[in-house]
Amino acid sequence: MTDNSFIGPMSMVKIDGAKIKLLREQQGLTQLYLATAVEVTTDTISRWENRRYPSIKRDNGLRLAEALNVELDDLLEKIAEDVEEEAAANETVPPEHVPSVDLSAAKTPGLQNKWILFILAATFVSVALVFTWYFLRAPSLAPFAAERIVPSHCISGQPFPVVIKVTGAPDTANALIIKENIPESATIQATAPTLPAGALKNKQIKWLKKINQTAVYSYLITVSGKDEEVIPFSGTAAISSESESAIQGDNTITLGRHHWADANKDNIISDDEILAVYNQYSDITGLDVDIDLIEEIWMGSAYQWDSAKATFKIIE
Questions:
Q1: Which residue range forms the structural domain that includes residue 197?
Q2: Which residues of 175-198 are buried (b: 16+ CB within 10 A; e: fewer)?
Q3: One domain, residues 48 and 160
């Protein structure tokens, strides 16, 4: 196979997003499972499958292949030479080389009936195979679900984002109700979409909107408490054609001394971590996740949290 990796600032490979999605669905895996295995966000997995990121780091490709139980080559996009070789290998034998079949022995009624049954059986099997191939490749409609995305940790009193992604709603407009219970020690800084008057009451956020298939709801929040304290989240979602169900995904955050965007808590915001922030939150209007501060920390060599001054000290 022709190597479709290329040299750049980092080793990259071109992936076949459609094949990744097919393998994931055939094995009953979720985008969240792959995101956890590869150590990226679910948004990144979605962009890979939809060819919005046709090239990825080779290390990510190897982890992705391992999660899907295949070789990396099985996920790579086939280039023109590969397609031509495969087509040549599968080329039909020319008519003049097809051995002729002597049907003279089939002139008796019994043999003629056997040939008719054989042809009908072969036709039935062919049609069945075509239908099976189509339904296996056709994308399945996911059931209605709502998933909450919360950073694993945050600093007491410092804002962090929470995102609720709704998928699987019918492609016609349906009424959606989101009820999100925020922690007792929490304060809402902003919401997207903006909440109407009275929609935040008794520590519960309520959204009522009409959606088609997918929707994203988010809010910026601060929580207070002691280091290592675990703060819980809960909520429900329902559309007009489905009963109310619990919001899945992340349901806790742990207080500490690291910025919420520093996923591995090493006092550095790496390239992967800042890209994950942009992938997850940059398209959400009305939600200020303080990208400027995250970029400042990313451009520095490290950072420290100064609890006395309640500020981040960036080490150049």
A1: 145-315
A2: ebebbbbbbeebebebbbeebeee
A3: no
Ramachandran quadrant class, 213 (left: phi over 0; alpha: psi -120 to 50; beta: rest): left
Element (H, E) at 80: helix 80-89
Give the DSSP letter of residue 76. Answer: B
The pLDDT tens digits of the residues spanning 192-214 come to 888 877 778 888 999 888 887 78
Does residue 191 lie in a domain region?
yes
In angstroms, the Cα distances linking 227 to 147, 182, 184, 306 are 26, 19, 17, 14
As given in the structure block, the two tokens for residue 84 are 């031509």
> Does residue 201 sit in the same domain as residue 306?
yes
Element (H, E) at 221: strand 215-223
Report yes or no: 7 and 69 within 8 Å, Cβ to Cβ: no
pLDDT one-digit tens code per residue, 127-149: 777 656 555 554 445 577 899 99
Measured over the CA atoms of residue 107, residue 112, residue 114 and residue 115, the dihedral's sign is positive
Based on the fold, state whether residues 131 and 189 are members of the same structural domain. Answer: no
Q: Are 303 and 267 in contact (CB under 8 A)?
A: yes
Query: Which residues lie closer than 8 Å to 158 by C-beta, 6 or more apart?
Result: 222, 259, 260, 310
C-alpha distance across the termini of the chain, in Å: 45
DSSP helix/strand/coil, 304: strand
In this prediction the pTM is 0.55
